[in-house]
Amino acid sequence: MEWKNLNTCKSFTKLQEVHKEQAKNLNLADIFNKENSCERVTSYQVKMGGNLKYNYAAKPVNEEILKALQALSDEQKLIEKYELLLNGDFINTGENRMVLHQLTRGQLKNDVVYKGVNMRSFYLNELSKIKEFSKDIHSGKIKTSTGKTFTDVVQIGIGGSDLGPRAMYIALKNWAKTTGKHKMKAHFISNVDPDDAAEVLNSIDLASSLFILVSKSGTTQETLANERFVKSVLEKNGLDSKKQMLAVTSETSPLANNPDYLTSFYMDDFIGGRYSSTSVCGAAVLALAFGMETVESFLKGAAEGDRLSLNKNIKENASLLDALLGVYERNVLSYSATAILPYSQALSRFPAHLQQLDMESNGKTVNRSGEKISYKTGPVIFGEPGTNGQHSFYQLLHQGSDIIPLQFIGFKKSQIGLDVESEGSTNMQKLNANLAAQIMAFAAGKTDENKNKDFAGNRPASLIYGDELNPENLGALLAHYENKVMFQGFIWNLNSFDQEGVQLGKTLAKKVLSKDMPPALKAFSELL
Predict the structure, then answer these.
(1) Three-class SS of residue 23?
(2) The one catalytic residue among 360, 384, 472, 482
């Protein structure tokens, strides 16, 4: 397989040329102030998994740009590289590892065998163990150290061991309560700030709480510090942590097969933290909270998203098209950020998860061979649920000096179903009216003689939408973004699966704690 930098691709040069030729036809304000724009809204969309759709009508593209993007996809062999990943090639060049998070939810290509172990079978076996364990917890077969039935579960982890699983739990919590699937209340401890752990522990009944320690290496500083914090509190309350704490780790970590834990579930080095929501890292807490049937639906949706991502036609592959449009916005239009704007309170922590997924994967300036590159790569990712965000940072999005592409997410129905009508419409109707209005306002703008009230428009947006947020389409939504980030990494010729950028700060923190540090670092440390 040939791995090429973006700026060496003939199709990228052609894309730049086509953009210059078509620029006068791509102004969104012009497009959406014409009467025939309705057809564009209904035709510029792609089917996703879980009965979701990806609409890109408010992106500054036409058929000529789409043809150029298809050529870039073909030249960079994006689907072929995806197939290599699925077949177990060592795509993670920085750490010389396979990348197998898609295998946790389905097998799309050949068997992947490592040191005699079929990795799909390994993942299925761990899911089977979680299924039986969660059943025993829910039935009361396994009880607390004081003989109580477990009512709460607390996940202790940081980064990908927290952001993804926490976002998924929050996304499904109200759905589960409404459908009778809610089994246990979940809580999360991540920050080494002692107030984080103390707040959670003060809010629960310690005697009926189960704790999940998540650390692949078994050596994560913040996670182990929080483990000691929790165990100390349990002991002070006369509780046996060995009967109330389990570990999610690798088979080679010091936490594996350790008698200090009730049981252990295993992951491996081929699944990065930010890609681990569909592994045991996410499955354990979600199965305890909602039951394994919910987890299986979640994995089914993700698997469908992965399958649809194999289509070479960008008009039929939402994650591939989203990736290419993002590269077009970053490297041709020079936009430096992307806003994730879910009009769903259930997705309140989804932007935070996508921040890590995208920025930790593609926030890099060397290619997968370790060579410096000269073009822009991953954008800054931020976001907040609508309509709250409208009263926060939308002013800059509408009239600021930087154009920031927008990714809206919306659903026709609420999860709980409780609503009220006022002024002729329900709250849900008001929510979606605001979503539709914002897309149009950003694209079409509004001219006004008062320049303070003038909206230039031409702000690009996409919309992912469906009927109602549930486990299956949440899995599809997650897979969409994971595969989008993967494809963009391939286009930019990055290794999207390591994260050396987080290491230096960790090393210096250890120097501070050991009191062995250079003078400037010591000066900063003495301020605190």
Answers:
(1) helix
(2) 360
Q: Is the Cβ–Cβ distance between 210 and 150 less than 8 Å?
A: yes
Q: Token pair of 462, please?
A: 């996409």
pLDDT value, residue 34: 82
Among this protein's residues, is 506 annotated catalytic? yes
Q: Give residue-wise pLDDT tens across range 485-517.
A: 999 999 999 999 999 999 899 999 999 999 999
Annotation says 360 is catalytic: yes
CB contact at 8 A, 166 and 198: no
Annotated catalytic residue within 391, 453, 510, 522: 391
- pLDDT above 80 for 140: yes
Per the annotation, the verdict on 35 as an active-site residue is no
Partners of 461 in the β-ladder: 406
Q: Hey, which bits of 63-151 come out as E strands? A: 113-114, 117-118
* CB-CB contact of 379 with 326 (8 Å): yes
The pTM assigned to this predicted structure is: 0.97
Burial state string for 206-220 with b = 16 or more CB within 10 A and e = fewer than 16: bbbbbbbbbbbebeb
- What pLDDT digit, counting tens, does each position of 184-234 carry? 999 999 999 999 999 999 999 999 999 999 999 998 999 999 999 999 999
